[in-house]
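Archive entry. Fields below.
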Amino acid sequence: MTSDINGAESLERAGLDETTWAELREIADRYPEKRSGLLPMLHLVQSVEGRVTPEGIEACAEILGISAAEVNGVATFYTMYKRKPVGDYHVGVCTNTLCAVMGGDLIFERLKDHLDVGNDETTEDGKITLEHVECNAACDYAPVMMVNWEFMDNQTPESAVQVVDDLRAGREVHSTRGPRLCTWREAERVLAGFPDDRADEGPAAGPASLAGLSIARERGWTAGAASDRAEGESK
Amino acid sequence: MTDTLTPVLTDNWDADRAWTLASYEERGGYAALDKAFAMTPDDVISTVKDSGLRGRGGAGFPTGMKWGFIPQDNPRPKYLVVNADESEPGTCKDIPLMMASPHTLVEGVIVSSYAIRANTAFIYVRGEVLHVIRRLQRAVQEAYLAGHLGKNIHGSGYDLDLIVHAGAGAYICGEETALLEGLEGRRGQPRLRPPFPAVAGLYASPTVINNVESIASVPSIITNGAGWFAGMGTEKSNGFGIFSLSGHVTRPGQYEAPLGITLRELIDLAGGMREGHELKFWTPGGSSTPLLTPEHLDVPLDFESVGAAGSMLGTRALQLFDETTCVVRAVLRWTEFYKHESCGKCTPCREGTWWLTQTLARLEKGQGDEADLDLLLDQCDNILGRSFCALGDGATSPISSSIQHFRDEYLAHLTHGGCPFDPAASTAFAPVGASA
Ligand SMILES: Cc1cc2nc3c(=O)[nH]c(=O)nc-3n(C[C@H](O)[C@H](O)[C@H](O)COP(=O)(O)O)c2cc1C
Ligand code: SF4
Ligand code: FES
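PREDICTED_STRUCTURE:
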């Protein structure tokens, strides 16, 4: 276990500032067993460092009392953790089957071309990191693009190019059913369990989410209430 | 008679600021708590058993029975873990639910935790859905402030803490024991069973793991009664579920209906297939469930009937593809997904998905020969039933079912020397009337 004094020493070694150390410890303390904090702790490391750094790994290891190799083993297992610096905006194009067929492949090709980067690469200005991603649970809005893990629904190659151009030019961009986009580092901080103030932005649901409900409203269909339905009524 | 669509979980999604506590309470939200607290935990379990609710995460295991497996004489703490990893390709119901009405889930967590006598619960949500995580964090915070969470909830003497935990990108963490590994801060690799999580799950303690939609259904069952729920659906598949339509249909989206509705009815409600096109193949419950064809349009979408048709109800993730779609391309892409997501723990899946991808990629390019189809089926044979978890099994579903239904299309790639389809024709932005 780390004493306060050792903690102070490691602070020098690991190069993370005191606030970050305190917040990493705070994450670990949320759980009945500290090690459960590791995934959110690595999100916090990314929000501070722009990637998973050796310093960040050391800090997690020290706080959790496990080896750096163990932390590293975890960090390399999950795809959201990045070894190379990520740009201000992580742009993920869904190329799982349904989105690919609906246009995701063409969108991804167009963006690679337009940004002059390959998969998992960052533009020279450090603004955009492009990656193809797996199904993001938004198939009813295909083809889907994620920017810093916010939904950009029903994209076309043209709309996708517009989004990245706006982002590079510093214009404000909104998720199609969510808030103003924040930076990737800010997003990682929320994933670490430190909420920002954007929960109330954006709608409750996009149009596709409401497709069935709208029909039920039009036709007066309901699931009824207990009183409308005798217990054990046959089907 | 039951109406064709039965909004329960989706019923407040069109309410003003539906995600807020104020909006949720205005519609009677959190009333199920007092009703549940007036019952014994065992009575809550019985009610859920009587309702016939079966797990909505894919396998359809009876929820009340699962809760009953928790050994209450075990002195260790009990835990409830909500599986909000939703990563099975095609599945897109839990995410909009948590975005629109996170309090429905939180209320369900409280009632369910009370039933199994857990004082700590977790929502393990995939990390790639930032706004959903914000809404969950906010809902939990609001619930604490309102006294729905924390100590002595509603004066009942019952305490519950709820922790929202963001994952970090790994499909396998949807598998319940891999999820527990992730939640314990480890690589997400499935655990050997037994012991089952009910006996030794999180921190080697008795643990219930349930899907978001399963848990979110609980408050309505407590409020309206087991008979109300059991009065919907079919003989052995009770209640309602969210059916997710995606792909080449006029109005893709979420349709909440009693189990047993057919795809024909759903497509009809969704305005038909996109104009000028017809259904070619579909998944009933995500990419791990064998493909079906228009021949199966009238199969009741319940656990038994879809099983009898040679597939699985799964997560009701209805991905619809029309005749512009190349089935070989579709299957190759899913197979690449399984290869990428294989956790590497067991050889049949780790090596097998690699070989499957090689063989399929060759076929898709029009190389190889007809014997490769048998090779593929052979490779599937070596994975199915021999893998450590269901990911490996799932990887074989699209392949064997597509060869069964579309053998000729594989062969066409060989005679054509490559894919005979125009990928532009299948896109959402293809000009109307474009064809392959
Ligand atoms: C590879 C794989 C991925 C899975 N992904 C999910 C998932 O994202 N969400 C989910 O609820 N269940 C998922 N499951 C099923 C879970 O293991 C488990 O059966 C389920 O969470 C139990 O909840 P239920 O009984 O309420 O359905 C997955 C299973 C496998 C094998
Ligand atoms: S079947 Fe695949 S995902 Fe499951 S344990 Fe084996 S290697 Fe891992
Ligand atoms: S396939 Fe792209 S979001 Fe599901």
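CURATOR_NOTE: Chain A touches chain B through 92 residues (CB under 8 Å).
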